Amino acid sequence: MQATEVSAQATEVSAISLRRPNGIWRNVRQPHLRLASGLAFRYIVLVCIAALYLFPFAVVLTTSLKPTSEIFSLPPRLGSDHWTLDNYRAALEAMPFWRYLLNTAFISTVTVIGQLFSSSIVAYSLAKIRWRGRDALLILIVATMMLPPQVTMIPVYIGWNKIGLTGSYVPLLVPQFFGNAFFIFMLRQFFRGIPEELIDAARLDGATELRIYRSIVLPLARPALVALSIFAFMWAWTDFLLPLIYINDPQQYTLSIGLYSFFSEHGVAWGALMAAATLMSMPLVAVFLFGQRQFLRGIALTGIK
Amino acid sequence: MAHRSVSRGLLFASPWIIGFLVFQLVPILASAYYSLTNFNLFQDPQFVGLHNYQRMASDELFWKSLFNTVYLTVVGVPISLAAALVAALALNMRVPGQWFFRTIVFLPTVVPVVAATYIWRWLLNAQYGYVNEALGTFHLGQPLWLDDAIWTKPALILMSLWVTGSAMIVFLAALKDVPEVYYEAATVDGAGAWSKFRHVTLPLISPVILFETIIAGIFTLQYFTQAYLLSQTRFNGASGGPDNSLLVYGLYLFQQAFVNLNMGYASAMAWVLLFVALIGTLVLLRLSRDRVFYAGD
To answer: N or C: which end of chain B has fewer CB within 10 A?
Structure first.
């Protein structure tokens, strides 16, 4: 506690020292010592937090690279005397991993395309076309986010079942072309920041709404569209419930369902399971590291107001 | 002109409106109807009035699953949001290379939930797991976690602490919005770090905390995947864990609908969930009325 106060004061002092007399006074005494100890304290806190969050990753990676005999050693330890890729080989042999990867990539890509078009055009209507009733529609869209999916899940399943489309990707993909409340809201927030004068000028020049949407709003909204793409891709990639309900044919399994059935069949083969979990997570970790900025900005954009 | 823009607005919004009608409004009405029937997918629904709702009252597993979910919501949500806020405060400190730490704290949130859950099954393994190893190092108790009915839900909450990234980012954005001058003024008044947090930071970000609490509460009421996979047994789907301690509401509803094919009963359960979520949200808004501070725009 003591240290926090010191470090907090250190910044405050350095920030305001030019403006406030007491700041200058304090600053004169031991500025460097205070700043340095504050900084060291901050790094210690941050390194401890980071270690907690990283530890499970270290466990997964090392477990996946150890022979079974060492995985079940007491006490457990992270190191190994016999690093090996056997678990990865076992995981790839036990399940058609590449098939699952392809299926998952297909579903995720179609989801991104569907949401990019549908959510953005609805968001355009809510942000840039002035019409009576659009505020009511916005409230309705936000309200649907509160609805537990369990309420609609059963009748929707019964509906797909009636027209014989359960057991295919259709129930997973078709809804993606009708927009998603969360994405619409996120894009609407972003579109509102695009200057109205730009759009009115285009309207005066006789541009149609479709043209304004396509050639002005979409190009300017690229960061938000990237954020949407990453979100949609990740959600589709990790979804468990819907593929569990709709997919029966092992040839159509996604990675989530594939990993789930791998556990069903092989249970405590922890080495191979951790290898498979690593393989499944890597594409998403890569997507995240690649598009971090937009992604985090997207969360902040929808999280507030 | 006004008339034309209404039709234009509707036209551009039509994808969502059509989707809403087909995938939400009609299903909601259908669900209300199914909840009053016995329906197993193969025969036509049989109207039974309020029977499904009456049956719930005497269904022990229903109450158990409701208890489990309410436990996770009431105990788990505050804990995981507090963790997210602490992480956000730490990640809001000004140090060179801060982005690196933010990336690390967010990283677990992008791990697919199926992979993350199996990772935690391994970490929480009573005998070979690292969590108990760590507890043992500090001479603390080593619960059986997933094999002990009392510890399964704390295990689930512990797991949720690892994936607080989204809430953390939202809190971080809120913290950045707090004007620097307020802190400067507090410093002049001689406020320490804790009193600055308590009297400046907390009131100013309270609307965001309320928002995140509602969102996290609604998501937790729908909890399914993690409980399903933590109680998954070989060849047999989800067992609900020892003494059904992991049979959360979403899991029991799923079993009724897609394992037992009691579509009517499951629909009635979905409506009860909707009401629980609504009442919970209203209670939360009411409780927070005097505690949330809204700065004028």
So the answer is: C
Residue B134: C-alpha distances to residues B21, B41, B122, B124, B137 (Å):
52, 50, 14, 11, 5
**Which chain A residues are within 8 Å of B164, Cβ to Cβ?**
none
- Interface mutation target, options B29, B119, B201, B260, chain A, most CBs of A under 10 Å: B119
Determine the distance in angstroms separating the CA of A238 from the nearest CA of chain B, rounded to an integer: 5
How far apart CA B273 and CA A81 sit, in angstroms, is: 52
**In a mutagenesis test of the A interface, which of B114, B200, B239, B248 is the best target, namely the one with the most A β-carbons within 10 Å?**
B114
Domains: count for chain B: 1
Which residues on chain B are in Cβ contact (under 8 Å) with A63?
122
Superfamily of domain A92-303: MetI-like (1.10.3720.10)
Residue at B17 is within a domain: no
Interface ipTM > 0.85: yes
Of A42, A154, A267, the CB nearest to B93: A42
Per-residue pLDDT of chain A (305 residues; tens, 9 = 90+): 333 333 343 333 333 333 343 434 444 444 555 667 788 999 999 999 999 999 999 999 999 999 888 888 777 778 788 898 999 999 999 899 999 999 999 999 999 999 999 999 999 999 999 999 999 999 999 999 888 899 999 999 999 999 999 999 999 999 999 999 999 998 998 899 899 999 999 999 999 999 999 999 999 998 889 889 988 999 999 999 999 999 999 999 999 999 999 988 887 788 999 999 999 999 999 988 888 877 777 777 665 33
Q: Where are the domains of chain A?
A: 2-64, 92-303
Measured between beta carbons, the chain A residues lying within 8 angstroms of B98 are 46
Question: CA-to-CA distance for A43 and A37, rounded, in angstroms?
Answer: 10
Could you give the 3-state DSSP secondary structure of residue A194? coil
At B148, is the secondary structure helix, strand, or coil?
coil
